[in-house]
Amino acid sequence: MQITAALLSGVGQPFEITTLTLDDPGPGEVRVRLATSGVCASDAHTRSGRIPSPTPSVLGHEGAGVVESVGAGVTHVRVGDHVALSWMPSCGACRHCQRGRPVLCTAAAPALLAGTMLDGSVRLHDAAGRPVHHYSFLSTFATHTVVPAASAVPIPADVPLAVASIVGCAVLTGYGAVVNQARVTPGSSVVVFGGGGVGLAAVVAARVGGAAQVIVVDPLESKRTAALGFGATHVLAPSPVVAEQVRALTGGDGADYGIDATGSQGVVAQAFDAVVAGGTVVCVGVPAPGVDPVLPGANLVRSEKTVVGSLYGSSRPGLDIPAVLDLYMGGLLPLDRMITKAFRLDEVDTAFDELRAGTLGKGVLVLDPELAGPLPVEAPADLAVPQPVLVGA
Ligand SMILES: [Zn+2]
Ligand SMILES: [Zn+2]
Hints:
Layout: E1 2-8, E2 16-22, E3 29-39, H1 41-48, E4 57-58, E5 63-70, E6 82-85, H2 95-98, H3 109-114, E7 124-125, E8 131-132, E9 144-148, E10 152-155, H4 161-182, E11 189-193, H5 197-208, E12 213-217, H6 221-229, E13 234-236, H7 242-249, E14 255-260, H8 267-274, E15 275-283, H9 297-302, E16 306-309, H10 317-329, E17 341-344, H11 348-357, E18 363-366, H12 369-372
Helix pairs in contact: 4-5, 4-10, 7-8
């Protein structure tokens, strides 16, 4: 079929809105008519070349829509089902999948890096018939996409698709770091470094998990203000004394959990310093090459602190994406408020300009206005977001 897509011809190039050919889904694949796509910093890093990925390609790795056609052997979704997309399909058969750790699945990574489907081929072609690469299996900057079956997670039809489209990346990463890896307990204290999409998702997950104190550290005042609106109890600007400030706010001993959503130099060490003896630091932000944490070795032993990584929220996307959306529909996670701006597909360059300038919160591209529904999304009627306890800022 013919689709409209934002084609990236090479690193640093503007997007070209053009017609491409999308092949039918192969065995174990699903074709989805897309409602909206999230715009994520990873897309921008890929266009700039910081994250290498083959071109020409169609970027976009956050989306939701309606199943239009299924390939042979696909049984978990049918035509007409609503789906949220996950860029981390898993094979179900390798050691990691067998152990219930699908984000560690080794089967998908080579194809993801090669910009192909799982079988090493592509479903996208340009007008001249030349192959066009996929991006993170999803290529959601387009009206339609073909994805691995495991990337199409069925969701209830009453969930707004625009909200569903932002769950499969930053939201799942931040939520899962708190719920699956840190396992935040009621009454506890959490310090989150970084107030972007991942950090905000960690904040709302911590509050839903019953954290009494959620402290957010971010250099931008706009992000600190936003964090307070999503349930942070305190916000701090980064400084050499930030760990001392966190300890002072948490009774002198430090926070129970630290989340590094930045990947920036020195932040893991600050988080380590800011958590209580026996506490846990979860590293979520991926550092640039050569940026390695340096931890006080003796203190690591004597304080029995845990430092642990978390990829894609340590999630099981097929379970966690519907769970997150259930919490949203129950009024507990204000995901609709995370969407700050909607763009048409032909405005994708503008969205990236605003992302680079730091003025865009969470943008979505509207690919099918009818499926996307009204934006901003109307929140569930019984929205009962945990109210922030403003002890100080
Ligand atoms: Zn992303
Ligand atoms: Zn696997």
